[in-house]
């Protein structure tokens, strides 16, 4: 079945999924850089408020993986939805064509 008959913009969805994955990677890199910066403050910000800053950051850091994974899951779900929609569209087209063929065969037999 011809993929551009599925009624979806496959190229657009592929680009969007790649953009989502790229964004997740950029966010991951930014958060890693932030982690390095905050961890590095021990050498010059060694006091109670510095310890509190690093402690609070560690509490927030636990969510970094969840945030990043959620963004990647969104990209994965978009790709899955594209394939499911395309396959469903192809299946419906195949069933419809088979039905039309049966009707045409039946019509030819009736006219004889």
List the helices and strands and how they pair.
Blueprint: H1 10-39, H2 48-110
Helix pairs in contact: 1-2
Task: Walk me through this protein's architecture.
There is one protein chain. By secondary structure, the protein is mostly helical. It has helices at residues 10-39, 48-110. The longest helix has 63 residues, at 48-110. The chain is rod-shaped, with a radius of gyration of 27 Å. The two termini are 32 Å apart.
What spatial form do the alpha-carbon principal axes imply?
rod-shaped
Q: What's the helical proportion of residues? A: over 70%
Structural class: mainly alpha
Report the β-strand fraction as a percent range: under 5%
Major sheet size, sense and barrel closure: none
Task: State the helix count.
Answer: 2
> What letter string, H or E per element, gives the SSE order?
HH
Number of strands: 0
- Nearest-angstrom radius of gyration? 27 Å
Uncertain ranges: none
What is the chains' assembly state?
single chain
> Termini, distance in Å?
32 Å
Average pLDDT number: 87
């Amino acid at each position: 079945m011809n993929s551009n008959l599925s009624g979806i913009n496959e190229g657009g969805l592929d680009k969007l999924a790649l953009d989502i994955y790229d964004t997740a990677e950029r966010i991951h890199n930014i958060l890693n850089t932030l982690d390095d910066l905050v961890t590095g403050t021990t050498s010059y910000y060694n006091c109670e408020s510095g310890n509190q800053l690093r402690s609070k950051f560690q509490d927030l850091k636990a969510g970094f993986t969840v945030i990043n994974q959620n963004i990647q899951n969104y990209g994965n779900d978009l790709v899955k939805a594209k394939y499911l929609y395309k396959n469903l569209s192809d299946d419906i087209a195949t069933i419809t064509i088979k039905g039309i063929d049966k009707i045409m065969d039946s019509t030819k037999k009736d006219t004889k």
